[in-house]
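Throughout our pipeline, every protein is held as a single compact record rather than as scattered files. This encoding replaces a full spatial description with a residue-level series of whole-number codes. The remainder of this section carries one protein's record, kept here as part of the documentation.
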Amino acid sequence: MNGAAVIDPAVADPLDALEHALQCERRALIEHDVEALLRSTESKLAAVRQLQSLPPSAVAPARVSELNRLNQGNHALLARRRREVAWTLRHLGRVESAGVYDASGQQGARTQARCLGVG
């Protein structure tokens, strides 16, 4: 998959750029493509920054709702991937974090180890 690192200059509408980034993000999640996921996330954030610079009257609420649904769908896929990784780590006896960040945004992870056997 070839995701752009930033908003494609050919895409003049920031909503179109955001939609493209969300579609790339979905493909990357489905295909387990970490590098494409990072690129699409960068593109998504750039599009959101561009949208935030516009006056609210310049953004169609119905389109924003549609893109929000796409983003929520991607969130569900990402949550599923995280559960799969946590399950795999747990069954391998690896250390996993119970929470990566605390409410203030600082790393506050508690580590848990599982002993698979005594020998």
Residues 14-112 form one domain. The chain has three helices and two strands.
